[in-house]
Each structure stands twice: as C-alpha cells, then as structure tokens.
Structure to design on (116 residues):
C-alpha cells in the first residue's frame, strides 16, 4: 500500500464541493450524497470556520498528522460509503482514480490553499 498523500483543491459549484483533476479528465467532479456536508464538518474542525472559499483536501489510505479517519462501511453502485464522526458520505467511483481498491480507512485533512 502506498503511503502517498493526495492533494486536491476543492471549490464550490452549484451548491456542492467539486474538484478538477486533469490527470483523470475530471472537471467540476462533485462530492454528493453527504460528502459535501462531511467536508464542511472537516473544514470547520481543521480551520475553525465555515467557508465557501476553495480549500485543499489532503487524503491518504495511511494515517498522517492532523488527519481525520473515515471508516469504510459498504460498496454501493460502484461507489463506497464512509463514516466519520457519525456522518456518512458516499464517494463515487472516482475514488479509484487514487486507490487500487477502496481503503478500509480514509484519512482526510482540510487546509486553506496557501497551506494554512
């Protein structure tokens, strides 16, 4: 298993968080089915504020400093459900752009794009 930490810049579009990743041909790829709401919770925990400004999200299948652990719950329609702090979120099949298989734990941290 890789110990890589992936980084995406997310921004708000049509009411949810989205990201672009030219490597995989993703443009305004949305976080849906609880994922935008869960990201709002993570942003509040990590920055102490609600924001609609772009944020960087760091994520890995391995623990890293300051990260929150989301636990895999189940697969459904090609995507995967994770739970963190009592909230559930479905991550679409685009998760597999970054992992060979859905990890048992997904470690996530948010920060402002300037690294703060």
């Amino acid at each position: 298993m890789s110990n890589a930490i992936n980084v995406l810049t997310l921004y708000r579009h049509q009411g949810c968080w989205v990201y672009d990743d030219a490597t995989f041909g993703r443009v305004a790829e949305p976080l849906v089915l609880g994922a935008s709401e869960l990201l709002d919770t993570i942003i509040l925990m990590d920055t102490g504020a609600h924001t609609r400004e772009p944020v960087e999200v760091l994520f890995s299948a391995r623990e890293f400093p300051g990260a929150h652990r989301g636990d895999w719950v189940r697969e459904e329609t090609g995507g995967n459900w994770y739970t963190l702090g009592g909230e559930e979120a479905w991550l679409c099949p685009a998760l597999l752009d970054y992992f060979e298989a859905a990890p048992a734990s997904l470690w996530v941290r948010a920060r402002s794009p300037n690294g703060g």
In short: The beta strands are 6-13, 16-21, 26-30, 55-60, 68-76, 79-84, 87-91, 105-111. The chain has one domain: 6-111.
